[in-house]
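Before any further analysis, we paired sequence with structure tokens, yielding the entry below:
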Amino acid sequence: MQPGGQPNMQQIMEQAQQMQQQLMSAQQELADAEATGSAGGGLVTAVVSGTGELKAVTIDPKAADPEDTETLSDLVVAAVRDANRAAQELQAEKMGPVTGALGGGQGLGGLGLPGM
């Protein structure tokens, strides 16, 4: 803070730039990361990116019963949901520290802005 209780604008801008860089870095890490989910004891696995984009589905031939395609469909859905859950955990892990500085805890008050 400068004399008179006013925040130092340059300091605020530097903090905002640091947060933006951290956010961009976390977003890139998520885009590069993969999360895996499975169902049926591993008969079906799904891989999604850290941002939740479905990348691959692997089906064990034992799960492919032509007389029971409904079970296979259920296993695929369950595996994709499991992978998405894992991706959400990864998002929380990567983005939590960045978004926490913006909205959690002390929020924007940590920037030293008046009235916050």
About this structure: Confidence is low (pLDDT under 50) at residues 104-116. Residues 69-103 form the longest helix (35 residues). Strands lie at 34-39, 44-49, 54-59.
